[in-house]
């Protein structure tokens, strides 16, 4: 029984060591392997390379205690650069193009401006390059100051710690100064990050008020609609397909994420499986393989 359990666990870990279009670093794999192995050092270093676009938007032209003089950022780069760099390899390549020293002293004007998704896939890709099982997770964060009054959409990274024999949630986008709460950004606890499945089922079962969950789009999406969006993102990410913000199943996009009873029941089933993605890995993979409707078929051009 023990051997069978270990074999199954190894299968799951091997799956999450694999890369996707979004997390494969190509010729940059050797560079990634040489980055620090310590997760604390690795995340601290990554946080020095990137500025969240919200910071630029909210503090344009100001001197930020952590990031530096934001007025030095060229006007044409004061944007969400996620559209330009949707994959980890594109993020890393552009960082090294702006300054080939991936260090702690990167100039403010040479940093990249991507959101939490970009940060999550970059960290996952580096860990995978090092042979560590890792996956991107989409859900909602309670602990970041900009999410006060509820939980806003957020993407983080989850990796398997062989020494501790457990999966650990890590937030490479989070800085300690962002929150008054005592949160270990390199070991996020269950009550600090609401996975998409827990958020979706919480709203469906009327345990979580709709107004407490939101997606920071323009305009903001609240409640079930926000949770449905995150559920698609997380399901795809659990299948090693870390889709971009514009990429959602065609049937859902056509109705602006307003699903009928049958469609919601389908998601109820998947969400319940996603509460324990390792235990239900085979069943989730089966749904992913056989039911094309949950795969990405829409986007900017499709």
Question: Would you mind describing this structure in some detail?
Answer:
This protein is α+β, with helices and mostly antiparallel strands. The chain contains 11 helices and 8 strands. The chain has helices at 2-15, 29-33, 39-47, 53-58, 88-98, 116-129, 196-204, 223-238, 250-254, 261-274, 281-290, and strands spanning 63-64, 68-69, 134-141, 151-161, 166-170, 193-195, 213-215, 221-222. Strands 3, 4, 5, 6, 7 and 8 form a 6-stranded mixed β-sheet that branches. Strands 1-2 form a two-stranded antiparallel sheet. α7 runs antiparallel to α8. The protein starts with a helix and ends in a 12-residue tail after the last helix. The mean pLDDT is 91.
List the total number of helices: 11
What share of residues are in beta strands? 5-15%
Main beta sheet, described? 6 strands, mixed
- Kindly report the average pLDDT value: 91
Unreliable spans are none
Count every beta strand, where a strand is a DSSP E run of 2 or more residues: 8
Distance between the termini: 47 Å
Order of helices and strands: HHHHEEHHEEEEHEEHHHH
Rg (C-alpha, Å):
19 Å
Shape: globular
Counting helices, strands and paired strands, the structural category is alpha+beta
Helix content: 25-40%
